[in-house]
């Protein structure tokens, strides 16, 4: 993918805890957790981080944008303008003052 180091942010504390845990996951989402861990192993460094919803509006905007389409969408470099504006705001939220 060309991304040796990634940070995956999520607003579900329980999912992030499952992803960073060293123990086997036995929950109903175990196959998703297993897949995510496997994908993460393809990067030199992958960190899973909890971010509250106020700092993760871009994910919400992408979910809304994805639900409005009739076909699957994949955004690799640029996303829809509505999502890019929110992502820029999220980026400022994470920067130190």
UniProtKB/TrEMBL annotation:
<dbReference type="GO" id="GO:0004523">
    <property type="term" value="F:RNA-DNA hybrid ribonuclease activity"/>
</dbReference>
<feature type="domain" description="RNase H type-1">
    <location>
        <begin position="2"/>
        <end position="63"/>
    </location>
</feature>
<protein>
    <recommendedName>
        <fullName>RNase H type-1 domain-containing protein</fullName>
    </recommendedName>
</protein>
<dbReference type="InterPro" id="IPR052929">
    <property type="entry name" value="RNase_H-like_EbsB-rel"/>
</dbReference>
<dbReference type="Pfam" id="PF13456">
    <property type="entry name" value="RVT_3"/>
</dbReference>
<dbReference type="GO" id="GO:0003676">
    <property type="term" value="F:nucleic acid binding"/>
</dbReference>
<dbReference type="InterPro" id="IPR002156">
    <property type="entry name" value="RNaseH_domain"/>
</dbReference>
<dbReference type="InterPro" id="IPR036397">
    <property type="entry name" value="RNaseH_sf"/>
</dbReference>
């Amino acid at each position: 993918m060309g991304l040796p180091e990634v940070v995956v942010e999520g607003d579900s504390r329980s999912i992030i805890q499952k992803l960073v845990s060293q123990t086997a996951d036995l929950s109903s989402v175990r196959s998703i957790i297993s897949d995510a861990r496997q994908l993460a192993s393809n990067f030199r460094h992958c960190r899973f981080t909890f971010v509250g919803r106020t700092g993760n509006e871009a994910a919400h905007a992408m979910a809304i944008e994805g639900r409005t389409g009739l076909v699957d969408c994949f955004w690799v470099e640029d996303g829809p303008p509505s999502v890019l504006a929110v992502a820029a705001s999220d980026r400022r939220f994470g920067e130190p003052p």
